[in-house]
């Protein structure tokens, strides 16, 4: 697709005034920021003396035969010809013990739009793992229940069973449409030890919460090099309410670690919070981390709820080498950071995100928790409502946000009498550029920090410029070149390119020339190329 650039320079005037606030910064150790590199979270199991289902023809495998193999456990694969083959099941399959189910790259299991595909149980109260690999799961249907593709309900020891999916596809699975805690169109996991997804595609799944994936109380959720497209959280009003959280992914629970690396979340929908991603934490032992990921065109269409890209609340977070582009909601187009969200955003890009009538096309930071924003580009985000403003960053007058080596440029509000780029000043880490200095009516913009430099960084269009996510290069004469401060600078930019001794401001190092020798794994960028 073509990435349009929102260029507001022509409708702005020059000039400016200062309003300063001094706040503490969250320390960022040099070199501590990860590269846009995603080591595999899991690799396919090499099958040993597997049970082989079928005689080389599609009609040779029955639901009863698959169930019998699952009851025995161990390694299972298929021989149904060259494929691809969709096996329509006449009943839900039940897994109750250690199993590897390998579709051989040819088999898709279908619920036929009449029942769930896989139910995970633990009648023996043991620790075990279900591994799905080289397999498709489609058209599971649970109109009155959760997890139309795969469901692990409560029962047995807490956090004893794990799910690993490698090189799998989940398409058109539809779970309960409206329920406060229900949903998970493709996968719903309650109290699992871990959910590990590697090279998995989720397309067209639906559920009250977590259109593709919903986890409640699982200890670890790790997603690597995967794609979530056109999934939908169909509930409404949130919790309490009837769900609607997490168009693609929804996470709830305490003491859990959630990590997305090389993940594309594209064209997902939610009626409550977080059209791309939703996470609520309850403690500092939890964490939510994004690296080398893309949030693109995720939309909340409702007039009352918010957060088009991602919603994070209640615990530590970290966002690295990630792009939020063209996400949309009534308020908070890209990223909402709620109470208790303490963490950092580094080497990331926010562009073209839209808050239709409310504040914060880019970021809404609702708390006085410590948040450090470093080497980040926030450009061309919109809050065009007639009384709306703070299109770049909405943050309260009392805050613990610090901005370092970042660009805050051409964010456009609808109300000319309030700041458009940022509502209130934040802590000053140095090396920041802001543009323009005045709104179209001649009023001075709010300076983001006391030492911000008022200059147009001459950004080029968002697009594929190396690395796993779209970025915005600096023009050859950009004043952002070598404008950054040195302390705390990460060793690479959003693409994995070396930063020079005097770094450029923003997510893109225009004066760098060398990609780190260990490189990076690129996510599937077909959705935005």
Q: Could you explain the architecture of this structure?
A:
β1, α1 (63-72) and β2 (74-78) form a beta-alpha-beta unit. The chain has a 26-stranded parallel sheet that branches. The chain has an 11-stranded parallel sheet with strand order 4-7-10-12-15-19-23-26-30-34-38. Strands 14-18-22 form a 3-stranded parallel sheet, with no helix packed on it. The chain has 529 residues and is an all-beta fold. The longest helix is centred in the first third of the chain and has 10 residues, at 63-72. It is elongated. It has 2 domains: 1-34 and 321-529, no CATH class; 59-311. The termini are close together. Residues 1-31 and 517-529 have low confidence and may be disordered.
List the helices and strands and how they pair.
Elements: E1 51-53, H1 63-72, E2 74-78, E3 85-88, E4 93-95, E5 99-102, E6 107-110, E7 118-120, E8 128-133, E9 136-138, E10 150-152, E11 161-171, E12 187-190, E13 194-203, E14 206-207, E15 213-216, E16 220-224, E17 227-229, E18 232-233, E19 249-252, E20 257-261, E21 264-266, E22 269-270, E23 277-280, E24 287-291, E25 294-296, E26 310-313, E27 317-320, E28 323-325, E29 328-329, E30 335-337, E31 343-346, E32 349-351, E33 354-355, E34 363-365, E35 370-374, E36 377-379, E37 382-383, E38 393-395, E39 400-404, E40 407-409, E41 412-413, E42 427-430, E43 433-435, E44 453-454
Parallel strand pairs: 1-2, 2-5, 3-6, 4-7, 5-8, 6-9, 7-10, 8-11, 9-11, 10-12, 11-13, 12-15, 13-16, 13-17, 14-18, 15-19, 16-20, 17-21, 18-22, 19-23, 20-24, 21-25, 23-26, 24-27, 25-28, 26-30, 27-31, 28-32, 29-33, 30-34, 31-35, 32-36, 34-38, 35-39, 36-40, 37-41, 39-42, 40-43, 43-44
């Amino acid at each position: 697709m073509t990435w349009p650039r929102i260029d507001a320079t022509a409708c702005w005037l020059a000039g400016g005034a200062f309003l300063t606030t001094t706040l503490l910064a969250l320390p960022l150790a040099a070199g501590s920021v990860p590269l846009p590199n995603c080591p595999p979270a899991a690799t396919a199991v090499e099958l040993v003396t597997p049970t082989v289902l079928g005689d080389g023809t599609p009609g040779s495998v029955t639901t009863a035969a698959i169930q019998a193999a699952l009851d025995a456990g161990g390694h299972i694969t298929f021989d149904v010809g060259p494929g691809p083959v969709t096996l329509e099941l006449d009943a839900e399959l039940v897994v109750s013990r250690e199993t590897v189910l390998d579709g051989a790259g040819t088999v898709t299991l279908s619920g036929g739009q009449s029942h769930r595909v896989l139910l995970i149980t633990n009648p023996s109260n043991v620790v075990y793992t279900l591994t799905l690999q080289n397999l498709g799961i489609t058209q599971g249907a649970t109109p009155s229940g959760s997890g139309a593709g795969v469901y692990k309900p409560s029962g047995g020891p807490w956090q004893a069973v794990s799910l690993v999916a490698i090189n799998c596809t989940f398409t058109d699975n539809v779970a309960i449409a409206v329920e406060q805690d229900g949903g998970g169109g493709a996968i719903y996991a309650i109290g699992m030890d871990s959910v590990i997804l590697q090279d998995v595609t989720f397309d067209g799944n639906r559920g009250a919460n977590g259109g593709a994936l919903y986890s409640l109380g699982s200890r670890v959720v790790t997603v690597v090099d995967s794609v979530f497209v056109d999934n939908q959280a169909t509930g409404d009003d949130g919790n309490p309410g009837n769900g609607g959280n997490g168009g693609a992914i929804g996470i709830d629970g305490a003491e859990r670690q959630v990590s997305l690396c090389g993940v594309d979340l594209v064209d997902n929908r939610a009626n409550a919070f977080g059209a791309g991603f939703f996470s609520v934490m309850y403690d500092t032992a939890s964490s939510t981390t994004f690296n080398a990921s893309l949030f693109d065109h995720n939309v909340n269409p409702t007039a009352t709820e918010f957060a088009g890209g991602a919603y994070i609340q209640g615990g530590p977070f970290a966002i690295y080498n990630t792009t939020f582009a063209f996400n949309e909601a009534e308020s908070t187009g890209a990223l909402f950071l709620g109470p208790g969200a303490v963490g950092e955003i580094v080497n990331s890009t926010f562009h073209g995100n839209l808050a239709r009538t409310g504040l914060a096309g880019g970021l809404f930071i609702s708390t006085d928790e410590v948040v450090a924003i470093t080497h980040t580009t926030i450009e061309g985000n919109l809050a065009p409502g007639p009384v709306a403003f703070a299109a770049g960053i909405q943050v309260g007058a009392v805050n613990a946000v610090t901005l370092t080596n970042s660009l805050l440029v051409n964010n456009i509000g609808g109300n000319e009498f309030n700041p458009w780029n940022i509502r209130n000043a934040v802590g000053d880490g140095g090396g920041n550029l802001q543009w323009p200095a005045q709104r179209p009516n001649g009023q001075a913009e709010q300076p983001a920090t006391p030492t911000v430099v008022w200059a147009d960084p001459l950004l080029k269009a968002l697009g594929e410029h190396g690395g796993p996510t779209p970025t915005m290069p600096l023009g050859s004469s950009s004043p952002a070149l070598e404008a950054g401060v040195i302390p705390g600078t990460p060793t690479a930019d959003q693409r994995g390119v070396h930063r020079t001794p005097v770094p450029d401001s923003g997510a893109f190092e225009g004066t760098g020339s060398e990609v780190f020798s260990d490189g990076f794994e690129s996510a599937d960028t077909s959705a935005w190329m």
